Amino acid sequence: xxxxxxxxxxxxxxxxxxxxxxxxxxxxxxxxxxxxxxxxxxxxxxxxxxxxxxxxxxxxxxxxxxxxxxxxxxxxxxxxxxxxxxxxxxxxxxxxxxxxxxxxxxxxxxxxxxxxxxxxxxxxxxxxxxxxxxxxxxxxxxxxxxxxxxxxxxxxxxxxxxxxxxxxxxxxxxxxxxxxxxxxxxxxxxxxxxxxxxxxxxxxxxxxxxxxxxxxxxxxxxxxxxxxxxxxxxxxxxxxxxxxxxxxxxxxxxxxxxxxxxxxxxxxxxxxxxxxxxxxxxxxxxxxxxxxxxxxxxxxxxxxxxxxxxxxxxxxxxxxxxxxxxxxxxxxxxxxxxxxxxxxxxxxxxxxxxxxxxxxxxxxxxxxxxxxxxxxxxxxxxxxxxxxxxxxxxxxxxxxxxxxxxxxxxxxxxxxxxxxxxxxxxxxxxxxxxxxxxxxxxxxxxxxxxxxxxxxxxxxxxxxxxxxxxxxxxxxxxxxxxxxxxxxxxxxxxxxxxxxxxxxxxxxxxxxxxxxxxxxxxxxxxxxxxxxxxxxxxxxxxxxxxxxxxxxxxxxxxxxxxxxxxxxxxxxxxxxxxxxxxxxxxxxxxxxxxxxxxxxxxxxxxxxxxxxxxxxxxxxxxxxxxxxxxxxxxxxxxxxxxxxxxxxxxxxxxxxxxxxxxxxxxxxxxxxxxxxxxxxxxxxxxxxxxxxxxxxxxxxxxxxxxxxxxxxxxxxxxxxxxxxxxxxxxxxxxxxxxxxxxxxxxxxxxxxxxxxxxxxxxxxxxxxxxxxxxxxxxxxxxxxxxxxxxxxxxxxxxxxxxxxxxxxxxxxxxxxxxxxxxxxxxxxxxxxxxxxxxxxxxxxxxxxxxxxxxxxxxxxxxxxxxxxxxxxxxxxxxxxxxxxxxxxxxxxxxxxxxxxxxxxxxxxxxxxxxxxxxxxxxxxxxxxxxxxxxxxxxxxxxxxxxxxxxxxxxxxxxxxxxxxxxxxxxxxxxxxxxxxxxxxxxxxxxxxxxxx
Length: 996
Fold this sequence. Notes:
This protein has 46 helices and eight strands. The protein is mainly α. It is 64% helix and 4% strand. Among the domains are: 16-208, 3-Layer(aba) Sandwich (Rossmann fold); 214-266; 440-502; 619-707; 725-908, Serine Threonine Protein Phosphatase 5, Tetratricopeptide repeat (Alpha Horseshoe); 928-989, Orthogonal Bundle (Arc Repressor Mutant, subunit A).
């Protein structure tokens, strides 16, 4: 498995180069370079067969193969079908010791796998770490290949799991191979977005299988027919199949190597080739197979018998038909009870054989069969959902509408919001056709549309949300129902904003909503729209005084209404309007209290926003991270994936500020799995880009930034996303400070709505200008230095024209703003090449440490050490911040920063290794040469091994240099060495002292 040489693939014609690519991917995974590959092409092109052949070779080399496949079940899918099948298959074939070890490492596996009693429908997203853990436990024992065949039909949870695994690639011995059909993915299919997001990652690649050449088709025919095929037959097959291996197989079924031509009655068209085997069945069998196609998913034999009986076909003929269809390669068993097509594309072709109206009674029969069944939990949800689909196919729109609404209610009970949205969409589509003759006011349809808009918003379908609110605006009668109209106008305006239809908040729409509800001053709608108008004024910096006035009135109106929803909105607005005031503390707490009472994830999100805005400048970053972590957990439990995605991305951002990069990585992986709406995906990808840039993975960072601009073209001009600082830091990581300065200059006025963002941008401007000036000085380019300084002056002047003033403290306990200001002062001094900057950098380090800004502390520590070195400070003095920067960079896996520190340490001849005294309480485990050392002598020895000077050792151990010298003399005598270098080298060779 160490190389990429590919032995002959049994039963595979051609595909030599493709086989090498797949084998190379698996070989890379064996070498601890995990990867994913998407193998795609049209139906029947041989994707599954090729992957299976390569996996068989990998299995012979010792790799574990986990094989799962997506199965077309209809609108509602059971979660993790593909992944569960793969894991269950591995459990069945694994050695007992391997199985026991993996299950012991992941006790929660029992929650996932049916063979262990699992019921995965509860909180599906939280089972992602279980799948990940099982795979990690497996690859710790041997390399593994996870295959998901027909991923275009895989359930959403299985796709999420693939994203989660790929986003977590580090050094696992894991290859993920998936196959999908090009023609199965229509324009606008969400699978396109999922594939586009994953394929941009450096560890992911795609392999397209084209149709076979004539030579390859000839080779395939020789394998199928058991001998060399006649040239005329080869020509006929190539003409009919056009190189599709599956069509080739169908075309020659039943022929031998002696046949010279294809049967005359075979259709010439591609569809005919697919139907060839079906046409060989007798009439009753063909009809039974068509009945199965209408089902739309693998069906039980009992259900098929019932449907066939309704069409006048007895059970014996059904059995005969299934046997013949199986013999002819048309159908195959799915488990012990279900049957389906060997090539599912045939089901689509057979459905197309029905003339208009012919399939209506068949759908009715399937609906009747489903009506006689019952189920529980997810099985019942699936049954009712399919029932709705068959009723629609039977043209019984009223019954389909009723079943759709029933399925939506079941989905809500199961907290399966994506499934609820699916059924609500169908219901909304059917409602006008069912209720067209109803002359009553459209209250029922409006209720449905408002529910659809709310659910679509929670799962991240922005366009569906906007469509529902837009339709509601058309239907609502402002005179008859002004309160509902006020609510709809308000929500439609925000939907237009979040989908990019408006570049800013619509004050006109909100003010119109106020006028509609104003005659009802005690209503929840009046309080809510006042609150939203306050937030709009605050976020656009239109008028902070107006924001406060609206918020005050909103709170009074909300209390009069008694609505927890209105109170949550009003107190959120109050907290944001008085962000600089201590009133924000109580207001944000009240917003959280009432939001919890609503049980609505969206209200909770807005309330947490308000609480975070209060906590951020008050050195409460850890509290903010905890709020996001709690929000992520709670919204996952509710199934509100869109809200959960925001919490994941926001959590990652604050964890990055705290320097907790490993935890941030986990949050990013979760967010990438969950995000659906463009805004929430942008929140997550901003954090992902920043993390990648700090780790030095610039290719991945660049891909994230590219995807960000595809999602939101005017990203840097959107307030509230904190995009410019992240984009600027990425540009600095790519050594493009001039572009960073340009970006910051053009966007700082837009971002002043959040002064802390503008202050961070000002600090990054100084950093970019300093980098630019340093580069110019290295080139002896005085004009370049002047341009850098002028660029910084320009941005400083732009900031000076904005209110509030730069680095204005929000509160007396605001520790973040002073830290950012200190960084700005130090970077400005670097840009100006001032002679003494170490004091400024020392102050920046101190303030960053106090504010818990560990990333900025690491950056400033490195600059402090550099300044000290330039000013001629002693090695012992320079070593303190240099080693601190090195330690912090290591903890954050910040490769580029760590490398910069190492280069500076080399120039300064300062060792960076930390001393590691032995943790043993006795000397029993010490090498014989060191067995007689005292504890203090062992501590001194640890510092010698780390390369510390006498002065540094004395300072660390709180003893004098003279005492250190005495201990070193004892060390030399006891170990028989002649110098401190010799004793340190001896200890290193013997592995002593050992790290804690």
